[in-house]
């Protein structure tokens, strides 16, 4: 608009200040006025073009500001993801270290604990009924880690861990047949058969127990119970460490 005002002022100067304007007989004032008006029109169009370009510039500036804001937001998001990735990488590294430790322990062998024994180490043996109901498995097949004591029939856990324990019992129909797996004096699982008309009975059972170092596991007869064994290994007691805890 300031440009338009300046143009009008210029026109006024041309119309009223130009010397000798009314004395030129060869100039058609109407044509001159038309030229001046045409000039004003052209100047006005140019002014509108300038204003339009200014509007375009303002729109471009607004888009540029919006782009800057978006870039700033995306940078903040990238920084956030970068921090999260660093945290994940730290946890991954810690996991890798734990895996390496487990591999090293596995390579070293770790604690190796296993035992297996049967009741009779010579001839035939009938055990029970009796006041001392503890079963002592004399014939030792294996005793890695020396957790089993063949003198007492007790397995003492050398380390904290989960242990797999199993046993089998065999007997004749004259008495209750079966036995109870005990842990520190508390019954865990058992086998059991009433006296019956058939000639003999057998049973087996197994369990996974969490034992602390020093816990004692052993077998006991039922009241008035009896089991039988010979060198064929009918009545047995076995166990091994699954893994430390």
UniProtKB/TrEMBL annotation:
Domain C1q per the UniProt entry, residue ranges: 108-245
Keyword terms, alphabetized: Coiled coil, Secreted, Signal
Keyword Signal annotated: yes
Domain of life: Eukaryota
Locations listed in the record: Secreted
SMART domains cross-referenced by the UniProt entry: C1Q
GO CC, alphabetical: extracellular region
Transmembrane portions of the chain: none
Chain coiled-coil ranges: 33-105
Gene3D superfamilies: 1.20.5.340, 2.60.120.40
Signal peptide (from-to): 1-22
InterPro entries: C1q_dom, Cerebellin_Synaptic_Org, Tumour_necrosis_fac-like_dom
Name of the protein this chain belongs to: C1q domain-containing protein
Organism: Eleginops maclovinus
């Amino acid at each position: 608009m300031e440009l338009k005002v300046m143009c009008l002022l210029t026109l006024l100067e041309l119309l009223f200040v130009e010397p000798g304007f009314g004395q030129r007989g060869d100039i058609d004032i109407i044509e001159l006025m038309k030229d001046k008006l045409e000039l004003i029109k052209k100047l006005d169009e140019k002014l509108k073009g300038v204003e339009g370009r200014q509007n375009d510039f303002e729109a471009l500036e607004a888009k540029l500001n919006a782009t800057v804001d978006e870039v700033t937001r995306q940078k903040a998001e990238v920084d956030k993801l970068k921090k999260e990735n660093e945290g994940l990488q730290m946890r991954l590294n810690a996991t890798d270290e734990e895996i390496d430790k487990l591999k090293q322990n596995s390579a070293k062998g770790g604690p190796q604990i296993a035992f297996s024994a049967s009741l009779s180490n010579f001839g035939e043996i009938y055990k029970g009924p009796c006041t001392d109901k503890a079963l002592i498995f004399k014939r030792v097949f294996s005793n890695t880690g020396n957790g089993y004591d063949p003198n007492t029939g007790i397995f003492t856990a050398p380390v904290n861990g989960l242990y797999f324990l199993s046993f089998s019992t065999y007997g004749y129909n004259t008495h209750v047949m079966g036995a109870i797996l005990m842990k520190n004096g508390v019954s865990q699982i058992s086998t059991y058969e009433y006296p019956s008309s058939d000639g003999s009975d057998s049973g087996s059972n197994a369990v996974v127990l969490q034992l602390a170092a020093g816990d004692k596991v052993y077998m006991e007869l039922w009241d008035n119970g009896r089991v039988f064994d010979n060198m064929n290994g009918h009545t047995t007691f076995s166990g091994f460490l699954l893994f430390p805890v």
